[in-house]
Model the fold of this input.
Amino acid sequence: MTQDTHLLEVSGVTVQFGGLVAVDNVSFNVQRGELLGLIGPNGAGKTTAMRSITGVVKPVAGRVVLNGKDISNLPVHQRIRKGLSLSQQLVRPFREISILDNVALAAGSRYTQSPLKALLHVSAQAERTRARDMLERVGIAHLADQMPGIQPLGVLKRMEMARALALDPELLLLDEPLAGLNSKEAQTLADTIADVNRQGVTIILIEHNLSEVMRICQRLVVLDNGRKIASGAPRDVMAQPNVRAAYLGAESTEASNTATETGDAHA
Ligand SMILES: Nc1ncnc2c1ncn2[C@@H]1O[C@H](COP(=O)(O)OP(=O)(O)OP(=O)(O)O)[C@@H](O)[C@H]1O
Done:
């Protein structure tokens, strides 16, 4: 693997909340074109690691390099301009405007950081055309003129993904997009995520639905208690005893509140 195939390099990132080390000296790379799963039990540090990539939280140590450029000290909006886009766990649409306009707003905000200017900007036909393309990519173009408030969660999640794609990201960060969906809905949304990746968008996927993760991800990074405990091909990673222990440990912790020890980190 040559250095220039790395779209993202996360090196020694550590995030603390008071006395809690939520992310502990974590390093991993994401190759251009890759669909990487970032997994681990509840509280492992996945979302915090993701937020340190987007700049929402500030690590106390380590660096984040995108396209060979150190972005560790850039604010969120500049990281977005450099090609990052984050689709959040919770979907918060603007309920008074159509699904199409929700996505067009995101397309407009690519050109301005002001929501008001973005609103004026989206009157331009270009953003609406672009928004329609994004809705097509995520399979809900037929719902473009509907209001988001009456839509099921699966549609809102697709709309949220279209909004993230409207920023034309090189790297799309998806935080638990399948949460709350039934198995059929999860499967079809996972298919859409794999399609978007095939269309050229590099993706980091945080997800608890391990069967879908195993099905669509090319590689996994596993966190537990803030530390990276494994990385590699999905089958190899899931066969590792320390990964199994981390997940079983999480279950037994929930049941008995007993701490569980995991194995050493793997490169
Ligand atoms: N803003 C915050 N302030 C204080 N502690 C936080 C904050 N965000 C996360 N934490 C703590 O950091 C640890 C890691 O949380 P994080 O949300 O990153 O884990 P996760 O792997 O994404 O979990 P889940 O799968 O449950 O979403 C947890 O102990 C959590 O309580």
Residues 17, 20, 22, 40, 42-48 surround adenosine-5'-triphosphate (CB under 6 Å). The CA atoms of residues 213 and 255 lie 25 Å apart. The chain is about 40% helix and 25% strand.
